[in-house]
Design a protein that fits this description.
The protein is mostly beta strands. The chain has strands at 11-16, 19-25, 45-51, 62-66, 69-73. The chain has a 3-stranded antiparallel beta sheet with strand order 1-2-3, with no helix packed on it.
Length: 90
């Protein structure tokens, strides 16, 4: 997710039940005494929710934030991962 202007301390990622919620507040620093006339950012508060499949292991969600990009890794539960079946030869 693109999260420009959002630092780690202003970001909240949580899982409740089967819902993943991402929230963040952008901080756009302005020099003292200056007022912006135009900005590409329309809103400074981001919020998005996603419904996760029951196949996802919500206990093992990993999140990283780098250069304004939030990356989430949500693995499948072990019992839902494909497994190789050994073929027996008679």
């Amino acid at each position: 997710a693109d999260m420009p202007g959002i630092s780690k301390d202003r970001l909240n990622v949580k899982v409740e039940g089967d819902t993943l919620t991402i929230e963040g507040d952008a901080e756009i620093p302005m020099p003292e005494g200056m007022e912006p006339l135009y900005a590409d950012v329309r809103a400074t508060h981001y919020q998005r929710s996603f419904t996760l499949s029951s196949e996802m292991d919500t206990e093992k969600v990993e999140a990283s934030l780098k250069h304004g990009v939030l990356t989430l890794h949500i693995p499948k539960r072990e019992e839902h991962k494909p497994r190789k079946i050994e073929v027996q030869v008679d």
